[in-house]
Amino acid sequence: MTFGTSRGDRLRYLPPATMKEVNNSYQEDLAYQVDEAYQEDLTYQVDEVHQVVYRQVLPVLVSLGVLANVLCIIVLSKPRLRAARVNWYFLLLAVLDLLVCVFYIPVITTITGCTFSSYVEAYYFSHLGWTLVGISQALGTYTMLWLSLDRFIAVWMCNLYPRIQSNPNIFRNRIVLTFIVCIFVHLPYIIDAKVDCSSSTKTDSTCVNGTWIIKTGYQNHFNEAWHKVYRTFYGLFIRFVPASLLVVFNVGLVIGVARGRVNFPTTAEGSRRAGERTLVITVISITASYILLTLPIIIYVMNYAKHHSDRCYGNHPKEVLRAIGNSFQILEHTIHIIFFLGLNHGFREELKILLYLAKRKREPGPWEDGQHGPSQSRHGELSLHCNTDGQKNASDTPNVSQ
Fold this sequence. Notes:
This protein is mostly helical. Helices cover 64% and strands 3% of the residues. It has 15 helices and four strands. The longest helix has 38 residues, at 119-156.
């Protein structure tokens, strides 16, 4: 009776219970086919933007960043430069830049969370991938903020400055406090992350028939009220407040130089006088590069970090912004060596010696500790005017140098 009939005709003769089982089986088969196609798309058909940025551009930038920052760490660790307290901040900044570059490696290998080889990799990326980058970058930002604050106080409150710097543990205390605070600020994003498998098969615990799908703490619960409030607090603490203070302090440095509050002694050697001036320029340059190059990723994180299931192959304009932001962010942690090479004579000399391009000279370079003339303070700082009228009067200028 059933020969020659269609599948639909045969299904009409089945009992309701059997019909339900058939429908469930059909849905599971359809879901499996969708999962297979989704996995194939994620693995082999990631869109061109992701392929170019995360397979070509970022690997080059990360490699250059690792090389540049390793050189900076080696050079700034030399006793000649390490003697000046100001270089402790630059050394720490180079270490943090190196960490950012290293923590970007999982971003590259997973194409920013599009492909995972195992659950462990997916779990690491969802909970720690971007948060470790964020912690390292936040520490670098506040390192520059502490340095800029020191310069600002030295220029505008020079009577207070020697008392602050007389504390031998001031650097350590600042960095330890900053590290603890940055960890706690990122803790909700570390905890509030999610890893799921795209497969609808409940017994597929290893996700063999699907692919791992993650939501980082920046994305999970993105539309909920508490996340919006905390995201605003995070943006203020990590991005906008330190960036605003950096602008204030560095504008204050520029005004201080223009008003004659920074003294470049005429009795000092030319290279030492240049070192005083270029130290201020270096701080301003690094600050400006931070503000400009991190702006795109700030805009993305604050407004467009919502999770999209097809973001890896859907050609979303927001993903283009994310790719640009990531590229600029890693670039910002790569180019600091350019400022040191271009502005710091002592850094250039030490690098030449390291590369066997020059022999060590006996005379000290800029930004050094020591009793080497009136332009050098014991903290490697500027010689300052403490008179309120800003006039260049050496007799009225208490000097913090030895």
